[in-house]
Specification:
The chain is mainly α. The chain is about 75% helix and about 0% strand.
Length: about 260
């Protein structure tokens, strides 16, 4: 029988608040995803896109706060995955679906079917991506993600819809591109292409010019023109890794 001293006691007072803080941030991420869905249903795609990007911020903070306060837990990790599935899986797909489905359906039932299949494909890939990440988290190289992270995939889809919603008529090509983006980032999420992890940034490295000059300038541009700059930045990140991967494979094949 364990002695009374060996039984862990629940945190009390201010310590309990420290334990709750990461989960509150995760709840905020979940809430932003839910708000994005509600905004899309109401046809407000600007707010829907902004809500998904706000969810990205909360998602980046919860894990860091848990590590800084040494309050990481299995419960927190599981809760974070569930919140990610809503905010970066269901919400972006539904935003894309609600924005493009009605318009693309005017071109025929086949186009309408393509729209909802592409949206569901994105959701399924996000679920598979999160499940794989959880299963391999303890063994993978922390410097890289295996496949496109779901927050970055959501960022590209949300940025494209947010940017495109400012145009009155994109036509069939623009609407089709919405669902092509869903298909592409879905494939990237379940691929084995290595994406660099921004979580492993060394702030003491020699690239201080990049971190303290380029990053603030980029943030200023995002604040000035959010949909355009976010679309540009997420497009660069999503395409850079597969382009580099293909170039390396071609280089190796040429040397072989």
């Amino acid at each position: 029988m364990s002695s009374p001293q060996s039984v862990p006691r629940p945190p009390t007072g201010s310590r309990r608040g420290v334990y709750l803080l990461p989960n509150l941030l995760t709840t905020a991420c979940l809430g932003c995803g839910f708000f994005a869905i509600i905004s899309a249903i109401n046809g407000d795609f600007g707010r829907a896109g902004a809500a998904i990007f706000l969810a990205l911020i909360f998602d980046g903070l919860d894990g860091r706060v848990a590590r800084w306060t040494r309050t990481e837990s299995v419960f927190g990790k599981e809760y974070d995955s569930l919140a990610d599935m809503v905010a970066f899986g269901v919400a972006p797909a539904l935003v894309a679906y609600k924005w493009g489905f009605a318009a693309i359906a005017e071109y025929g039932t086949s186009w309408a079917r393509f729209g909802w299949i592409a949206s569901f494909f994105y959701v399924a890939c996000a679920a598979l991506r999160l499940a794989r990440y959880n299963a391999r988290a303890a063994t993978v190289d922390k410097r890289y993600f295996e496949g496109l992270p779901s927050p970055s995939a959501a960022g590209l889809v949300a940025a494209y819809v947010w940017f495109s919603s400012e145009w009155n008529d994109l036509g069939l090509i623009g609407l089709t591109l919405t669902f092509v983006v869903c298909l592409f980032v879905g494939l990237m999420m379940i691929s084995g292409v290595p994406y660099p992890s921004v979580k492993q940034i060394d702030w003491n490295a020699r690239m201080k010019f990049f971190y303290f000059v380029i990053v603030p300038i980029s943030l200023a541009l995002v604040v000035a023109e959010p949909p355009t700059m976010l679309l540009f930045l997420f497009t660069v990140y999503v395409l850079f890794a597969p382009a580099t991967y293909v170039i390396r494979r071609l280089h190796r094949a040429g040397n072989g």
